[in-house]
Amino acid sequence: MLQILTVTFPLLPLVLSFSHPFRGLQTCKAPCSTCEPQCTACIANAHMDSTSTCVCDEGFYLSNFYGDCEKCGQQACKTCVSSSSCVSCVKNAYLTSIGCKCEAGYYWADSQKCDICHETCLECSDKGEFSCTKCAADAILKSSHSCGCYTGYFLSSPEKTCFKCSFTCYSCKDASPQTCLSCASNMVMISKPPGPCKCKDKYFWEIDKCLNCHSSCATCLASGYCTTCDTTAKLTSEKQCICDSKSYMLYSECIICDTRCKTCSSGDSGGCLTCPDTFVLSGPSPNFCVCATGHYLPLNARSCVPCHSSCRTCKDNSATSCLSCKENSSLNSAPPSSCVCDAGYFLSELTCSDCPIACQNCTGTKSAQCSACSKRAVLNSLKECQCAIGTAWFSSSRECKCKDGYFYQVGKGCSSCLENCAKCSGPDVSNCLECLGETVLLQTGCGCPPGQPPPFKGTCPQCHPTCANCFGSGISQCQTCAPNRELKGGFCPCKSGYSLTKSQQCEKDKDENEFSNTKKIIIAVTLVGAWLLCGGVGLVLTIVKNWGNGQPLRRDGTGEELAIVPHGGQTADLEENSSYEIRNDGTIIQ
User: Fold this and answer.
1) Peptide bond into 31 cis (omega under 30)
2) Above 90 in pLDDT, residue 196?
3) Position 7 pLDDT exceeds 60
């Protein structure tokens, strides 16, 4: 009986087999299954290489324990030395510290290789379109695990990137305007998608979008350029669609106006633009056509009829059918619905006209006579009403009231205010509300400011020029005097040592010796002026006649000319009636 003895040595798996009953045992080295002495056959999951040596298949390693080719324990391993130690990776995979991993855009397939993801995925868990785990930067990962783009963009497979659709597309397959899946605003598909888009009816294309045609157009080339109209409208030579005068445009269709309108903007009675004869617009909105003031519309009539002449509005043309009255008249209770003139007015030529001033009631047709007077007015023998003394007629309130300068006292009528008080509320100083003219309110009443004469009809006279304060405007009514004057019995003459000038001012008298040493004025004429060589202080003088050596300079304004002997013996004239300033340094300046 034959026996097979298998002996296992550490780290060296041997397979003992009989190649011939009489040759004894022969040992093969794994992964050989038979050898003589070279391998002639390999164990499972191994193959013979070009050197006739058995090696484990890709993805398998030689187990030292069992002596067979065991499968690598990690996916994507091409070669390994143990179940958990990859040495190299399959195609489209790379080695990491924990094993092999499929490259981005690939996944580990059932076919035991890194297979490419769906074209839309950057990374995935399976082959399908709905197995994406990561998308390109500008794409979005949807809840369905597919990658997509925002509306108006499409995903390009090669770049896995989103690009903008054509502006005619709302969604698209690619960038071409011929591959829209849906259309942009105001556009429709020409055919089934994918395909091109066009503007809807009543829209036109401008630059990059569809815009509204004018509301009257059915189709157009521009906003105000219609190409066709709806059947009820007419296309004009100006390429506009219009309705006839008794219709209005509604969504490019002409709708007939309400029967009460002549022209209209809508179909109801409140949309009138113009009205038939005898009608007017009620406006501003809504615009109904109604009878004009002073007219009414009889039942079943199509034209308005005038009211009675006394009525402003009415329900028919009788004098007792007024609904409202004309100016200065009111509805009367007897007879009902009739108009009568208000108090202070009388009927003249179908109009309520004013009664004469201060009349409360009057009668007449063209001219009126007073029958009763207004308050604070009296009736004279000529049937005229006159306002009482101290009163005036106020047309706004149609009554006689106290005029300015008067106040009302019960039982006494209008009494005069204090003198020079323009308006007051009573007889006392404290009741004065406004003073007359130039007067001001003082403790004693309305008067002129202190130091001025008493007022005359609201005017404050000025004191005489010689006075500083006065009790009248005369020369002898001074209380205090102007400068350089003294008070003497109401007069203000110049003080002693002062003389009256031509301008009525008191000036100090001049010292007789002031110019006693002056024999003549000698001037030196230069380019910049004249130089006066004399003593004395600066003053202003006027050139006068009859001036001789040793005489003081006078300023009385008289004289014709003055001859002055200048340096060098020549004669020079200073300009007549001109003022010159003689400075302390001798400079003469005009």
Assistant:
1) yes
2) yes
3) no
3-state secondary structure of 476: coil
C-alpha–C-alpha distance, residues 416 and 403, integer Å: 10
Torsion from C-alpha of 4, 6, 7, 8, nearest 10 degrees: 180
Q: Phi/psi of residue 269, each to 5°?
A: -70, -15
C-alpha span between 359 and 493 (Å, rounded): 64
Q: Which amino acid is at 81?
A: V
pTM over 0.70? The answer is no
What are the distances in angstroms from CA 144 to CA 108, 149, 188? 21, 13, 29
Phi and psi for 430 in degrees, rounded to 5? -65, -15
Residue 142, CB half-sphere, CA atoms under 13 Å: how many? 11
Spatial distance between the Cα atoms of 426 and 248, rounded to a whole number of angstroms? 71
Q: Which long-range contacts (CB under 8 A, 24 or more apart) does 416-419 make?
A: 416/390, 418/445, 418/446, 419/445, 419/446
Question: How would you label 121-159 residue by residue, b for 16+ Cβ within 10 Å and e otherwise?
Answer: bbbbebeebebbeebbeebeeeeebbbbbeeebbbbeee
CA–CA separation, 243 and 258 (whole Å): 15
DSSP structure string for 14-27: EEEEESSTTT-EEE
All residues at 6 or more sequence positions from 541 whose CB lies less than 8 Å from its CB, including other chains: 553, 555, 579, 580, 582
Q: What is the 3-state secondary structure (H, E, C) of 498-520?
A: EEECCCCCEEECCCCCCCCCCCC
* pLDDT, tens digit (0-9, with 9 covering 90-100), for 11-41: 334 333 333 343 344 578 888 988 888 888 9
Interatomic CA distance for residues 229 and 236, integer angstroms:
10
Tokens 């997509």 locate to: 148
Q: What are the C-alpha distances in Å from 24 to residues 2, 28, 202, 346?
A: 11, 14, 104, 163
In whole angstroms, what is the distance from residue 14 CA to residue 347 CA?
Answer: 149
Evaluate whether 486 touches 466 at the Cβ level (below 8 Å): no
Strand partners, 151: none
| Residue 210 CA to its chain's centroid (Å) | 31
Specify burial of residue 267 (Cβ count, 10 A radius: 0-12, 13-18, 19+): middle
CB-CB contact of 123 with 117 (8 Å) = yes
- Provide the residue ranges of all domains of the chain, joining segments of one domain with +: 169-212, 515-590
Q: Residue 478's CB: how many other CB atoms inside 10 A?
A: 24
Instruction: Please identify which residue in the block is written with the tokens 């008249």.
Output: 329
Give the pLDDT of residue 535.
Answer: 35
Tell me if residue 386 falls in helix, strand or coil.
Answer: strand
Two structure tokens written together for 37: 């002495």
